[in-house]
Amino acid sequence: MTASAATAVQPNDPPPEKVGIGGAAREYVDRVRGGDVGALPAVLGLAVLITVFAILRPVSFTNAFNFANLIHQAAAVIVIAMGLVFVLLLGEIDLSAGFTAGTAAAIMGIAATRNDWPWWAAVLACLATGAVVGTCIGLLVARLGIPSFVVTLAAFLGLQGVLLKLIGEGGTIPIRDDVLLAINNEDLPVWLGWALYAVTVGLFAAVLLRRYAGRRASGLPTQGMPVVLVKIGSVALLLGLATLFLSRERSRNPEAASIKGLPMVVLLLLVLLVVLTFLLSRTPFGRHVYAVGGNTEAARRAGINVWKVKLICFVISSSLAAVGGIMLASRDNSISPTTGGASTLLYAVGAAVIGGTSLFGGKGRVIDAILGGLVIAVIINGMGLLNQPSSVVFIVTGIVLLVAASVDALSRRRAASSGRV
Amino acid sequence: MSMPSTAAQPPPTNDPSPSPLLSLRAVNKSFGAVHVLHDVDFDAFSGQVTALVGDNGAGKSTLIKGIAGIYPFDSGSYDFEGRAVTVTGPKQASALGIEVVYQDLALCDNLDIVDNLFLGRELSKAGVLDEHTMERRAGETLAGLSVRTVKSIRQQVASLSGGQRQTVAIARSVLWNSRLVVLDEPTAALGVAQTEQVLKLVRRLADKGLAVVLISHNLNDVFEVADNIAVLYLGAMAAQVKAKDVNHSQVVELITAGRSGSPKDIR
Prior knowledge:
The structure holds two protein chains of two kinds.
Chain A: H1 2-7, H2 20-33, H3 40-56, H4 64-89, H5 97-114, H6 119-142, H7 148-167, E1 173-174, H8 178-183, H9 190-217, H10 225-246, H11 264-282, H12 284-294, H13 296-301, H14 306-332, E2 334-335, H15 344-355, H16 366-385, H17 390-418
Antiparallel strand pairs in A: 1-2
Chain B: E1 22-31, E2 34-44, E3 49-54, H1 60-67, E4 75-80, E5 83-84, H2 90-96, E6 98-101, H3 113-117, E7 124-125, E8 128-129, H4 131-144, H5 162-174, E9 180-184, H6 192-207, E10 211-215, H7 219-225, E11 228-233, E12 236-242, H8 248-257
Parallel strand pairs in B: 3-10, 3-11, 6-9, 9-10
Antiparallel strand pairs in B: 1-2, 1-4, 4-5, 7-8, 11-12
């Protein structure tokens, strides 16, 4: 290429700038001011909510038992929200994710309980159900061009019927398999929790340090070593405190049954977070998802197979909804015609949006689902401890979602005027 | 009278320059009953800017879409580097090294400059994006085009001015081993200073040895950068002449009437 050959002589022309901690902080403030708020509202909201509930219910809210309980409650919504992030990134919506979770869980229950399949086969059947639902929705949206709102609304109604048909009027399918029950009820041994902590922090540090070294070697600007170390240190500290807290004995009667250690579901959430974040930010497919959500026409002209990207996103969304279904079933020990119904889907959409994923497409991360899901779980959990009736819980959750959507819309407007999206 | 000779005549006869990179002869294109292009001849030369002008509806867009393979021509010959080629799809055009920068640019606002430059053709190692190489090559390409106006190549495209966006779109077209770049009205929405920047960039592309086809309504821009001017009038090539052989009003006559000078020059 002539252009690159001409300048290859002086590849280090703008010398790599070191920003430093002060510079990085200034840059971040600029970004937030410019409307790129990222995860800030969710983190602030989480901090405020935890502080408020901790003051109002100092004992019952802050104990380790409740903290673990909160994670179990949030897990299913978080996983469904992780899937929704992919669909929301395209600027589409999946209203059927809740009942996809319920239907897939029902298939798993029928396989495991009624037909005595081994747990892994039942889980595979569950995931396959999700993938099939996602393929149908994806084909209708991407190939026929029906708006995803309509397709998934139809799927929402249809799957509700399928779930009812599978389970039977007024019936439930109990879960008896030990492994399936353990997924969202049991805890890891304390030592394994700490091992997981070490691996997570080590992995995070390795990724950041490797990127830093790679950019230096290529002569590209870096953030500077102090910023990298501060990032690694704060993640290590926060996760360390959480692990320490959850490793404490939290049983009311430790002699009878000891409860301590990280909930097993945390391991699953971490694996999904790492794998899906890698998929979105480090692979060509992930880049194409953002491109389709940002400007479909530009993506098409750049040679990206737009309908294939859309199809894959819907399959991912529904498959993750199926994983969420496993967690719901595991938590409830059974599947009923309302599993995945009620407000499951709305909480999941709310989680993604509260976490910072835009409803307008093109902006969002997998971690958003975790942050937003925790915000919603804290509200539900805390309001429950305050003995508020569900009427109030619904109203408050609705307001929080509205606030999150307003932050999204306002930051978008701000971004448009300051030239960031 | 140093007048443009008439239509069907292939361009600069007294030209010592080598044979054209792209040469179209007697191409036709119809959309149903509408005959848009009539026996159009067109040449583009390496290292030269060829301006394609004409009034609205003259067939400029159809001609470049035919060159890009989006609407393949119905008949006529399409020669590239002196060899007859068939271009019936955008992929074949890109394989020849033909890139088109459309007026609406088609950039993703939510991605940064590097991402946009490599969109759809990301470099990866074992399925993982190779961000370092892409960022380095993007920096080298922009530096090679003497683009010094962007602060960071990791800033989002949404934060760029119109001229900078045009620059990114043009840089994307030369990042690959392109031979011929078609620019559709690159200065249409720009202010004076930015227009100047983009025109300089257009000139630099040609100086690097690329063949540049520039569509424009602004004759000042055309006379500033073009080596050749091709005028389409109602779907036929009214003339393709060297820019230094004609003046502003002659080109206006060609655009509006399809001819210039005395009646015997009628095509």
